[in-house]
Amino acid sequence: MTANNSATQAAHNTPSEALQATVHATELTRSYAKEALDQAESKIRELRGSVDPMVDKLADSAQKLARQSMDLAAEAKHKAQESLARYSDVTTKYVSEQPVRSVLIAAAVGAAVALLVTAVRSNHKRD
């Protein structure tokens, strides 16, 4: 009967040992998975730490370029206003010094524009 008892006891122990082995394997798997996730999280933090300064640097560069563009546009506007004021003064002075000549020039320019408009309209009607 001892052989029979040994076989029975072995049969009872086998599921228990299998359960223990499964629990142990599950714990090992969880441990490895946790370690892998920790390493991945560490890498992500490391990458994020190196990416954030690059994004900040690019944003700073974009802001500097925008400021420079606005400054250049303001400067160009100022120069255009100065030129316009200068030409307006010169024209006003010329008209006041040469009123008859100014009227004749204006009439000639008006006639030339009228001829051009008429020519364009007649060409447009033929097409």
Record keyword descriptors for this entry.
2 helices, mainly alpha
In terms of topology, how is this protein built?
Layout: H1 2-97, H2 99-126
Q: Rg, please?
A: 46 Å
The H/E string reads: HH
Low-confidence stretches: none
By DSSP (H or I, 4+ residues per run), the number of helices equals 2
Relative helix content: over 70%
Q: Would you tell me the overall average pLDDT?
A: 83
Major β-sheet, in short?
Answer: none
Separation of the first and last Cα atoms = 120 Å
Helix-strand category:
mainly alpha
Shape: elongated
Number of domains: 1
Fraction of residues in β-strands = under 5%
Per DSSP E runs of 2 or more residues, the count of β-strands stands at 0
Can I get a quick summary?
The chain has 127 residues and is mainly α. 98% of the residues lie in helices and 0% in strands.
